Amino acid sequence: MAVNAKKAAVYILVVFVLYLIITDPAKAADYVQIGFEGISDAAKAVGDFMTWLANGGK
After folding, report:
1. Rounded to whole angstroms, how far apart are CA atoms 28 and 44?
2. Segment 2-58, tens digit of pLDDT
3. pTM of the prediction?
4. Which residues have a Cβ under 8 Å from the Cβ of 44 and sit 6 or more positions away?
5. Distance, CA of 42 to CA of 46 (rounded, Å)
6. Could you give the CA distance from residue 42 to residue 11 in angstroms, rounded to a whole number?
């Protein structure tokens, strides 16, 4: 039962993304840019934390 719900959720998400891209490509590009900026910021924060940790927490 849970597998079917997961498949349905993924299918609905894919359909929504395709709909968004087809109806408003500029807004879809903005969303992708926001997502990549978020991932980049998160990776930078992890790197800063690891540097801080490697320096003995100073």
Report:
1. 24
2. 778 889 999 999 999 899 889 999 988 998 899 999 999 999 999 999 999 999 887
3. 0.62
4. none
5. 6
6. 28
